[in-house]
Design brief:
By secondary structure, the protein is an alpha+beta fold. Helices cover 41% and strands 16% of the residues.
Length: 561
Amino acid sequence: MCGINGCTLGDQATIERMNDAIGHRGPDDRGTAVDAAIALGHLRLSILDLSPRGHQPMVSPSGRYLMVYNGEIYNFRSVRTRLEQAGETFLSDSDTEVVLHAFERDGVECLTEFNGIFAFGMHDRVEQKLYLVRDRLGIKPLYYLRQGEHLFFSSEIKPFEQIPGITLTVDHAAVADYRGGQDIVREGFYHEVVAVPPGSWVEVDLASGQLTTTPYVRLTDAIHPDRYRRMAIASEASLVQELDVLLNAVVRDQLVSDAPIGTICSGGVDSSLITAIARQYHPDLQVYNVRVGDARCDESPHAVAVAKHLGLTLHQVTLDRESYLRHYRDCVIAEDLPLMHPNSVGIFLLSQQARSQGLSVLLSGEGADELFGGYHRYKAYKKKMLVEAIPLAKQLLGSSHDLFTQDDVRRFDFTAGIAADAPAWLRHRYQSTKTFLDAFGFIPSARERELKAFIAKDLVDYLPSILRRTDRMSMAVGLEMRVPYLDDRLIEFGLNLPTRHQVSFRDVKRLLKAVARRYLPASIVDRPKMGFPLPIQAWLGTDDIRGTYLQAWEQSRTARG
């Protein structure tokens, strides 16, 4: 896991300044390479092949390609075996070299073979082209901007502020959406800064300056009518076994590391299950937890119970009012944005402790809620659909607040479409829902089709802000955070899983919890979901939480400017 930078200036001083701005992402090594047409920079966090052979920028055997890479390819060994059988030879044991060889041999066609979290810049010295590539879900960040005839790219936004002559202008519409409680759709508040779309590559012709963006994979590609139909008639017991085997394979693959590794355990079912499975392969696994200094919000006793049950050592950090006030501005700076999630500070402190104790990698439970139906709004939506189909059901279910008044359970009128001048966040939500509705068009039941789309859309509507938090808070201290639930194999499983195995009127994550009961006590699996709540209003002394975060962001911009 690393930080990457690049510019078409071919200027050593510029690339060094960009590297300096994100030095926290790569504490183990740094490097630059300057050609006439381009300069590339790299900050290394050593995970695989800790030797100097993993140094970047890395050049292909022929000398044609020059690459900077950030991430992990979990199936790199199988890809390497294929390449070796085709005659390729390797000088290191890193996945970086595997990506480089695969790209030289197969070009962009190799991208569909990679299962992992990654972003990279690839310079083709022969064709004088630059490729910017990002993983399927955009788990690893990659941004670019253009100024005149030149292009700059980076893992974070901060390096762009270090380039002489570049002025970043604030997108006030995005700021207004944020103040109004909406997510940050564009991954930033600046007009000039563009995020490489997840599952896409951006090709830059260095001679003409022409730029094209091409998707190489879409989430809907993982939706298979035959697999859905098979799972619809399968017994729950067989699906529990299938998911159990799959989770073990994924966790085992993501435990591959030449550096010390551990897990986050909140005490909830998602992270506890990952920890329990990882314990089978790493008996001395180190486990980390955030203890909240308010008993009403503290889940740490459950994490203590999990660690005791598994016979593991639990390391805890305390998040209270004092530590929150001391660090939340640091987290705003790390994220390049006002905080979307107040618990970012807890993730930052936990990562900081793990890193100080020598760890380089942590496994997280992020993504399970979005993939396996973990939010209570899914139950509310299911009730809403029943009421719409059977009006009498309203009398049976009651008129609870969560059923009839939450904004996130309302439906769009997909026959009428949406106004062109609607806010960006609303258009994004509409389009993502419609995309999944179309993809699930083979499902005969309209209610099942709609609920599947409602759950799946969170992978592109809500999850990105969580992934951004996870990357920034961990990489702020030079630590890699892996997300096993978002492995390609589990994405395909979850997207094709019928909703009766995801959510019912009484429960969420039904199938995942059934697997968890094989590893964990019922007191952990069946307890109510808390979701890392914090008494933020009391700690900050205001109800205008987003206003406070926004002010901290503006102050950080002023200080850097």
